[in-house]
Structure formats: structure tokens, C-alpha cells
Amino acid sequence: MWSWVAHRVTGVLIFFFLLVHVLDTALVRVSPEAYNAVIGTYQTPIMGLGEAGLVAAIVFHAFNGLRIILVDFWAKGPKYQRVMLWVVLGLFAVTMAGFLPRHLMNVFGGGH
Amino acid sequence: MTATLEAPETKAGAIPSFEVTLRVRRYNPESEHGEESFWDEYTVTAHGTDRVLDALHKIKWEHDGSLTFRRSCAHGVCGSDAMRINGRNRLACKTLLKDVNPDKPITVEPIKGLPVVKDLVVDMEPFFASYREIMPFLITNGNEPTKERIQSPEDRARFDDTTKCILCAACTSSCPVFWTDGQYFGPAAIVNAHRFIFDSRDEGAQQRLEILNDKEGVWRCRTTFNCTEACPRGIEVTKAIQEVKRAMITRAF
Fold first, then answer.
1. pLDDT attached to residue B3
2. Residue numbers in B near A68 (CB within 8 A)
């Protein structure tokens, strides 16, 4: 059940990100200066951590989404759902282990 | 879990016993508590072979006769005593006290998603209404055979898993979709539809699939696997639901 709860929560988070993302990207049509000002406010460590959370949410949602598709359409999916959840968590850990050090160095290392 | 067997000074031949505390969720609109449900704690002496149902019996018979719960056969066949024990749906008669850690208080609540009538007794009518709706009986066309309806062992094995259902509602009341949407047919009704849809002798599969192809039918299932974990008969409930979903897709085209 908790994988389903996490799937919902990450889904809602990604939805809100997309909403904000569409709005701030649309700003470039209003005025490029306003767009630059808004994007400039994102270059803070807090936003950097937010980006890390966003990537984590998307990675989990993507891998778990594939697992749900297999549960739905693969005859043996329901039998191996628990194994597949561990595979999802493993892939999540591997992906985040590759992404996080690089990203956090960019955020906190100051090197742009 | 032999840690609960204690008292070395007991005489030879004496059966070792232990104290166990049960926190029972009570509800009785006729009491001074009114519409509020509340927790009651009871401590009873139990033995290693006692099940949660035995402890509830002991409470009812020796401590508080007003405690109300359903049970009939008390041996995991009739499906009357499904309860939420330590946060999980189980049959009280199939759960040994020593398997649910008797060192800490054991919580016993009525199953969720169905209206509570009193204490641990819930109104099962919405559950059975869904069950009746999927037509849980043999549907055939044409003349009746003069002999029995023959079925090969392979055809019988196709739906063997779903014949084991005892309609205890442990699966349906463990489903988070059913908690928030009481209109959902629920896992138990789909399991019993599966039992006939995949029966080679039955000819009502199309009708049942049409009934379950509803907004509140199988498509409400979000594959959280709570039902599979809750089933005291070990039925792979989610797998059965998925098979019904796939039958709907493949037979429609």
C-alpha cells in the first residue's frame, strides 16, 4: 500500500511542479527580463535541494509506474510485485547515487 | 516465541500461562459514551495455544459481558470473525496470541469501511449486496444434461484459487479504495465473479464482465495488494482482479 501512497504523493508533487514550470516558462513571452528575474530567484541552495527532491520524485514515479504497468499487463506481474518493488527501490537508489553527488556539488560547490 | 512461557516454580504437568492485554475498540450508542467510539483495555490469562478469539471469549465470559463480536465456527471456515488486529485484517480464530506479540497490548478493532453496529460487529449488507450483484451462481443456456457437467482437472484448476473464499470481508475492508468509495464492488465480489468467469461449465461470463466493467467495477482497483496480504485463505486476490481486467480487454476485441 505504501508504494501506492508514495506514487500518489510524488504524482501530485510533479503535477504542481509542472504547473509552476509552465507558468514561469510562459513568462518569457511576457517579458524576457521578468523571466530572467524569476529564474534568478531559483539559483539558491534551498531551490537546489528542491530540485533534488523533484528528481527523486520523478525517478520513483517513473520506475514504480513501469512496475504498475507490468502488474497490469504481465500475467506474472501480481506474483512478482514485491520483487519488482525491490527492483524499483534498487534502481531508484542507483539513479540517485549517480545524480545526487553531481547535483549537490553544483548547488553547494559554487562552480557553475 | 517461547519467551512468553515462564513461571519455573509451577508444578510438573501444569500448563504454562501468560498475561496478555487487549485494547478493544468499542462502540455502543446505547451506553453513556453515545455515538463516540472508545478504547477499553482488558488483561486476561492466556495459554500458548490460545488465539485472539479465545482471549475475546474470556473477556466476554469473565470480565465484560457487554463486549460484542461475531463468531460462529471459531475454526477459520465460516468467515464471521474478521477483525483488524494490530492494524491488520485477520480472522480472530486463526490468529495465535503469540504470533501478534503478546508482550505489548494487542489492538482489536472492527474492520474498516463498513458501518459499525456495535463494538466489533459491522453491517455486512453493503458487502453482500456487491456479492449478489455479480451473480454468484451457475448460469447456463440450453437443455440441462442428463448426467453431471463434466470438467477436466485442468479446467477446474483454472479457478481453483478463487473457490477458497469464505466471504469474511477481510480483503474488501483492507482496500484503501473501498475505505473512501463504498460504491466500489470490492475485492471479494470480484474474486467470486472470477470463480465463475473462468469456470468452463458457466456461460454467464459475458454478463458478469459487463457488470464489472462499471465505473465502480474492476477498474477502481489500484493494485495496492492489501487484499492479497489480508486474505486469511491465502487467495491471490489482486492476481484474480488483474485476470478479470485482462479478460475484459482481450474478450472485448
1. 55
2. 223
- Domain CATH code at residue B81: 3.10.20.30
Give me the DSSP letters along chain B: --TT---TTSPTTPPPEEEEEEEEEE--TTSTTTT--EEEEEEEEEETT-BHHHHHHHIIIII-TT-----SSSSSSS---EEEETTEEEETTT-BGGGG-TTSPEEEEPPTTS-EEETTEE--HHHHHHHHHT--S----SPPPSS-----HHHHHHTTGGGG-----TTGGG-HHHHH-TTS--HHHHHHHHHHHT-TT---HHHHHHHHSSTTTGGG-----HHHHH-TT---HHHHHHHHHHHHHHHH-
Q: Any CB–CB contact under 8 A between A78 and chain B?
A: yes
Range of the domain at B173: 125-252
Residue B239: list chain A partners with CB under 8 A. Answer: 78-79
* Structural domains of chain B, count: 2
- What tens digit of pLDDT does each residue of B185-241 get? 999 999 999 999 999 999 988 899 989 998 888 999 989 999 999 999 999 999 999
Looking at CA atoms only, how far is residue A27 from chain B in angstroms?
Answer: 38
Chain A residues in contact with B228 (beta carbon < 8 A): 78
pLDDT digits 0-9 by tens, B12-44:
777 888 999 999 999 998 888 888 999 999 999
Q: pTM above 0.95?
A: no
Percentage of chain B with pLDDT > 70?
A: 95
Q: Is the same domain home to B26 and B132?
A: no
